[in-house]
Specification:
The protein is mostly beta strands and 355 residues long. Helix content is 0%, strand content 47%. It is built from no helices and 35 strands. The protein has a 33-stranded mixed beta sheet that branches. A two-stranded antiparallel sheet has the order 2-3. β2 and β3 form a beta hairpin.
Length: 355
């Protein structure tokens, strides 16, 4: 029966293609009946030739079948899920769509769920768009979407270990117009590139779980709320701008780099924690955080920040929601006045209050 079979069509001028026994894409002229999709020996489906493929039915892994659903071994493949779902068993180490050793692979338009290995795992120059990747999690693995580098656009990642991850440190990626929520370790992570216009909400139950994490990346225009840490970036090459980071259990932003035009409020720790290294903290609105407003690192310039109603205290109980203790601001340079609860603040030091 067709509902028990798995079929693909190759959308090209060459005609259609279907998956024969063993899961290898072949030209379809006269094919035997599709194999029984509930036999574990049929899996994984293998795409070994470049081309465009479209899923025409749900793929449901057999119970207790600890394998990948689809392995892509060719470069230059486009896989359109056609609005259908690839559904794993929720156990084992299988991956929904695996193509980490192939390049220029695109996956789009569908759902991948319940694969503890990873939902979608692709290599270099990958594109993933208009996909939901959910409930792909195990104790130490199971990312919703992981690529080496490329573009992730309009992806919904929920219930995974990490929602979306671009791992390359030497080639940039773009993660945009996506949302990551209720993932156990973190929402969105990229070492290099741009994370923009995304939403990261309710990721993790510990304070170390993050909404967005980066190294040398630009984090621009995101909404980040109710995570452990809101935004964390550990390289002076990072730019963090025009984000909203509110209601996180620990700090709103913890970073080194260029930090400007962010709104950081109602976090359980400090609003902005600047790690040591050359950084600029400019024109941020920082208020109602449980720790310092801005906890300065060394070699940092700061100015034009609006800082208000933060609860941090210096050693000795002196409230200093704006600037922290002298030791924390010893490398700081005021390049223009900050406004602390309506008062222009141009100096730092022990006893400076801005809470």
């Amino acid at each position: 029966m067709f509902q028990n079979a798995i079929r693909f069509a190759l959308g090209s001028m060459l005609g259609c293609m279907m998956l024969a026994a063993g899961g290898v894409a072949r030209a379809a002229t006269a094919l035997p009946p599709p194999p029984d999709a509930y036999e574990c020996n049929y899996w994984p489906v293998v795409i070994s030739q470049p081309g465009s493929y479209v899923l025409t039915a749900n793929l449901v892994m057999p119970t207790s079948c600890n394998k990948d659903a689809i392995d892509i071994t060719a470069n230059n493949v486009t896989l359109d899920l056609g609005g259908y779902s690839i559904i794993g068993t929720g156990a084992g180490t299988g991956i929904g769509i695996s193509g980490s050793h192939s390049s220029s692979v695109t996956v789009k338009n569908g759902i991948v769920t319940r694969f503890p290995g990873d939902g979608i795992l692709l290599g270099a120059n990958a594109t993933v768009e208009d996909v939901t990747s959910s409930s792909n999690a195990s104790a130490s693995n199971g990312n919703g979407v992981q690529i080496t580098n490329g573009i992730v656009r309009r992806v919904h990642a929920t219930g995974n270990s990490i929602g979306i991850f671009a791992s390359a440190t030497n080639v940039p990626s773009l993660i945009t117009e996506s949302d990551a929520s209720n993932n156990t370790l973190g929402g969105i992570s990229a070492n290099l590139g741009t994370i923009s216009n995304d939403t990261a909400l309710f990721n993790g139950s510990s304070n170390s779980a993050y909404g967005i994490r980066c190294a040398d990346a630009s984090v621009l225009g995101n909404e980040v709320e109710n995570n452990g840490v809101g935004i964390t970036c550990n390289s002076a090459g990072a730019t963090i701008a025009n984000n909203t980071s509110n209601h996180n259990r620990d700090q709103g932003i913890g970073a080194t780099g260029q930090i400007f035009n962010n709104t950081v409020s109602f976090n359980g720790g400090a609003g902005i924690v600047v790690q040591d290294g050359p950084s600029s903290v400019i024109s941020n609105s920082v208020g109602n955080n449980a720790g310092y407003g801005i906890d300065m690192g060394t070699n940092t310039s700061y100015g034009n920040n609006q800082i208000y109603e933060n609860s941090g205290e210096e050693p000795g109980g002196i409230a200093a929601g704006a600037l922290g203790a002298t030791s924390q601001t010893s490398g700081g340079v005021v390049i223009s006045p900050n406004v602390c609860d309506g008062t222009v603040q141009t100096t730092t030091g022990t006893g400076v209050a801005c809470n």
